[in-house]
Request: fold
Amino acid sequence: MSRIELKHIDKFYGSNHVLRDINLTIEDGDFMTLLGPSGCGKTTTLRVVSGLEKPQNGTMTIDGVEMINADDAYYAEPSKRGLNLVFQSYALWPHMTVYDNIAFGLKIQKMSKAEIDRRVMDSLRMMRIDMYKDRYPTELSGGQQQRVAIARAVASSPKLLLLDEPLSNLDAKLRIDMRAELQRLHKELGTTIIYVTHDQTEALTMSTKIALFKAGELNQVATPTELYNNPIDLEAADFIGNPRINLLDGKAEVINGQLVVKSDLGGHTFPAEHLTSEEFPKSGEFDCVLAIRPEQIAISTQPVEGAIPVTIYANQPAGSETITTLKAGTDEFLAKDIGQIRYDLDQKVWAIIDQDKINIYNKETTRLIKRAV
Amino acid sequence: MSKNGLPRKPLTKRRLKNLILNVLKNPFNMVVLVSLIILFCLIIIPLLTMISSTFTLAQGELRRVQGHVGDFTLYYWKYILASTMSGAVLWGPLKNSFICGFFTVLVSVPLGSVLAWLMIRTDIPGKKILGLLVTVPYMIPSWTKALAWLAMFRNSTSGANGFLAGMGIPIPDWLAYGPIAIVLCMSMHYYAFSYIMVSGALRSINSELEEMGEIQGASKAQILRHITLPLILPSVLSATVMTISKSIGTYGVPANLGNRIGYYTLATKMRNFIDQGPQAVGYAMSIVLVLLAAVIIFSNQRIVGVRKSYATVSGKGGRATLMPLGKAKKPLMAFLMVFLFLAMVVPFFVLIMETFQITTGAGYGLDNLTLYNWIGKSGQIAKYTNYEGIFRNPKFFSAFWNTIRLTLIGSIITAICGQFLGYISSRGRGKWYGDLTEQMVFVPYLMSGIAFSTMYFSMFSRPHFGGLMPSLYGTFTLIVLTSVVKHFPFASKSGTANMLSISVELEEAADIAGASFWKRMSSIIVPLAKNGFISGFMLTFISIAKELDLVIIMMTPSTQTMSYLAFTYSQEGYNQMSDAVSVCVLVFILVCYTVANRFGADLNKSM
Reply:
């Protein structure tokens, strides 16, 4: 268990500036996910924390102990940081059995034979792979190798567990199983976890907090709920959520402290307390973008007070959910219903939108100016 | 801090202390540093020493040149480049080298390419056995081919008749010795380059590319002309360049076939100067050889470059559909058979038979057969020799022991160094020390065996740096050292490939687990590198066992190897003895190859 504090971390590869002034605090016991598209610096951040990369700027402390101080060119060795890492490729040593893979680090710490045996078997049992202890990694399936890699990482009881896209090499079904497994692991060990992924579902389902990266910078750090409900800018809004969020152009103006928005969906007025401190013109009309999650749009076949008349453009019932494309004026947007619901194409229906759930973005700065509540 | 550039930090005391500690605490840095220093001493300094000795006046020239020993002089360069002698010393041999190289390419590249195409892309029968036979010539050292040629074509010019002359067929000198003999012998050796490279390229071409052409309506000839040929062209060019640079630097073949009639190439002429002085002239010629090789190889990289090397780069081949040869199958098969028969079976049959003959070229009648050359006692046959049969000759056993000793020690050291260098270049990819290592290691590749050993000869014939680098002249150590460093390029290439196959993450995982550098080496890298190490070792072993060019200059009576013994016997006219020794070398090498194949070593990588 530990608290990690990264301050002003900069990392260059040659003249390539891959991490830009990263400031991140990870509280004790957090399941922190570093999320972002590939090449955004999330794995580099993880490697900086682990000690495999040396940043050129910044400091890092774990539980108040200085681990990195770039000004003094001080970098604690990876093994002195009390952490362990699960690699994307698992990095299991192919010439050692499962047992030896896990025992290797413990032997280096000069633990007694009995203690090593106890720890290895405990972690194997926890990952439910104790029957494979004498096999070699190549004799295991991908999912089993994954479990060995995790067992190896937790056997040394690290205060901090780092996971680098651990599920990306697994098939879809195994991934769901392992997500549950990792959630249990976090609960049982109580360890602080830093988890790198580009998969938003993994991030949203397991984390207690998500750090969203954008081109080497931290874009937003928030709980999964907050990140999903109020993405800080258009890029974040577009990245999070499946099916993707509906973005519609509109015009906004501040009138009497309230935000009045006009679009193909009609007019909306938002109270001042829902507005953020981001910058937007306080007088005069300006371009804005409305963002609505597909599940916030309900469809009624009967006219409803305040609903918007639309036509059905496409209808995709897929078992547990139905995605429907609606058309209002020139704008198309998606609606999501639970269960199987069928509409005729070009049928006239009414879309019911809870205006409290709408996010408004300033088109010029792309930042969030009205929160969903 | 600037927005784009690296931050500049004030150098505080603590920062300095940590910076130094960071370097010192990581043994990898020390390993790199030591390796770079050693490479510098073994490659760069000898090169500089050799260059400087061509500008330094030596004892032998004092009567011709004014000055003192050690003075700067342009005498040697003037001597080979612009004196009345330069025609005979440099330009003549250089012309001969080029002629031999050119015609060797002309014969061997088409031959190897066609063979490769037949073997990879057509349905010619008996591929397994043919494929093995076609690569056998490369396993055999080129100088034994020259001996086999002599056994066939020798005439009275050099004393004893060969097989054909003995049958009463008059063999003119121009056929028995000189350029034609040299070109044919080298072609029989170097066609394997083209064969191996082109077959690699052909294998990597997805036959879907050709099938697409077929769907578009192209005929077989059009497909070959417009799709297949352009794709393998880079490999053909590379093979051409390798063949020409290798054949220009070859010593054994032109020495055996040319010296007797005064036909010299640059390589053979150079050795004369090293032996008889002035040595600096020999060094200067060796520099010419190195420059030639460098120009050829770099121009190849320029022309072929990365852009056009698609066929060799993309290793992944798809399904290969074979081209039916139809009616041409039988004639082509016959052609292959005749070729292999003439190129391999006949010469070696004659070579082996000659070891049993009393008089060469006098037929295989019982009255002319003897075991004398193998196990005879001196005086048994008074006719021509005062040597005992090779199995009674202590010289042979000493040479045998030297060969084993040299190959074993040399290849073990080379393979270990290769893995180490490979580790540094693979982990240092794109970093200055990795690139520097790779470049330094590449230098011996530019030099033919004879040029390289000349360099070492000049370096170690006297002590340097006040005895810090001792004189190794005439020692076995020098021969081992020369063999080791000359094989660095190949060994480190195989080491790099080996190390690249070991993911860095495996090491990082151990690093995080708390394993020190040496612990990581011993428990992760070494066990995983074992197989690659063994195959690298076997290939180096064979390559050193074959070697004649590289060690010939260094030989003293106590350090002779079998290759050298065969060569001296041949030069002295003891043809049967020479043949017997080379048969022993052949058996030794073939045994090694069989063992190497057991260990899964790939012959094709031994170039």
Q: What stands out?
A: Chain B has two domains: 90-354, 393-607. Residues 306-318 of chain B have pLDDT under 50 and may be disordered. Chain B has 26 helices and no strands.
